[in-house]
Every structure is written in C-alpha cells, then in structure tokens.
Amino acid sequence: MGITSEKRHFSKELQLLLFFLNSKYEENNLLNEKERFADINWEHFIQLTLHHRVYPIIYKKMNVIKSNVVPPKVIGRLKQYYQKNVFQMLMLAGETESISRLFMDQNIRTLFLKGPVLGDHLYGDISLRTSSDIDVLIPIRDLERAENILLKRGYIKDDYILTVLNDWKWRHHHITFIHPQKKIKVEVHWRLNPGPSWNQPFEDLWTRKKQSRISDFPVYILGNEDLYVFLTSHGARHGWSRLRWLIDIDKLVKLDLDWNCIKRLLKQYQLTPVGGQALRLASDLLNSFTPLELNDITESKKQRSWLMELYFTLNK
To answer: SUPFAM superfamilies attached here (predicted)?
Structure first.
C-alpha cells in the first residue's frame, strides 16, 4: 500500500485539519468541499487542533468562512483559545526584548530560537504560532552570568539536571528557569541539541544571524539556513508528533534560502536524512514546496517506510 493510500485511512477530522493547513488552501474551494464537513466529530477536531498546536491558524481560517459548514460553537471555542494565545505571545514578546536588553548590557550575545520571534519571522504575526516558553542560545562560557541575571530578575532555576563527573554540559543542552509571578518559562541553551548529537558552533551561528522585527531593540534569531537545520532536527527528535513543526517548515521553505548551503550543513552535521524527512512530510501532508536541490534526499525506500509508520501514529 502506498503512502497516498495510507493517508486515506486518516480520520475525517484529521483529513479536515490537513485540508485547512494545506499550503495552497483557498477559501473559495470550500464551495466544492462540503462533503469534508459531513459527520465530523467536532470535539475530536478541536482536540486535534490543540494537540498539534494549530488552533490559531484554524480559527483565523474558519472565522472568515461565509457558509455554515462549521458550527458557531466550534468557532467560539477556537476563538477563546486564540485570544488566550494572543495574550501569551504578547507577554512572551515583551519578556524576550527585556532578556535581550539584560543580556546585552552584560555583553552576553543571544540568539532566540522559537517563541514570538519565530511567529513573526515565519508567519508575519506572533499570534498565529503558539509557544509556552522562551528559548535563547548563548555561548557556554556565559552560562553562569546568564543564570545570575535571571535569578536577580525573579526567575527560579529548575534543578532537574543530575551531574555526573561534571558531564552535564555535554549530555544536556539547556537549563530551565521559571518566573513564579509571571508564569513564564525560559530555557537557556548552550547548544541546539542534546549530546551526543552534532552541534553547530555558536560563533558560526552568530555570523549568519538575522534581526527580529518584534522589537526596535536588537533581538537576534538564527539565519534562515541555520533555522532550517535546527527546526528539522528538533522536529525529528520529537518524532514530528505535532503538525505545527511541519507548518514551520512549510513557511520557511517559502523564504529566500540558500539550498546548497543547507545541503552542505545537513551533510556536515550528519542530518541529511532528517532534512529529507522534513521536506517529504511537509510535501505529503501540507502540499509544501520541495526545492530541486534537495530532491535527492527526500526519495528513498527507508523514507517511505518511516513515513508510513508515522502516518499510522498520526491517525491514533
């Protein structure tokens, strides 16, 4: 059975979700797609939007539908989640700028990885992507100073890391801090992935950085090519269990990327299969763009077998 056949066994709710998330979705197509809305378990559909963290996108698309194919109570539920996320992302955006200021005052260079900066950079709107924390990458030599800055700001360190012969800096890749009053979590990274994965040196990432638009004050993010490598390795590490990570890929590949640079980075850090997985998944599930330069890493029997296993998991 081929991969396309496997997708036909998705639940009607998952198929409807993918319909709205399709890279080439157009509202006008709804006139010919009313059958998709028949016999939908709307509670299950809402739970899928929450699990995959895509309810802001779904709400914005459903809210402008002029026909009555979606029950008003469903749109109302999604609106509540959307509005809560708007507040959350605005709060995280403000704290991101504050942390950038605090660290820069102490000459600590920062690269913000996800959160509001990613929502703005990929979606053009921080409210269209969900996030529960702030992830910031710094040079490992500045880790102790960064910790002291956050502690003085009222954060509490989450001491879950067990140190054995002081190898924690190699085995782990971030420390978590929680602000009890603001209910904000900050993860301070000194590497992009936990050991023993290959990691790009901070200095290389810094030379290719971009400035975020979420603030007039300098807030820096990964360059597009490094962002692709990071997002694909992160999604693969979590088994692509949330569609939001694939939507990130779909948004990113539409930007002006140096695909030869990406191919070189994937090979250098032994992530070529991962880079291929991301493109193949985004193409199959979201009808996303696949660059010609990377066609050769998306097609293989091993990829097909792995994708069919993932589709089975997605449909649970």
So the answer is: Nucleotidyltransferase
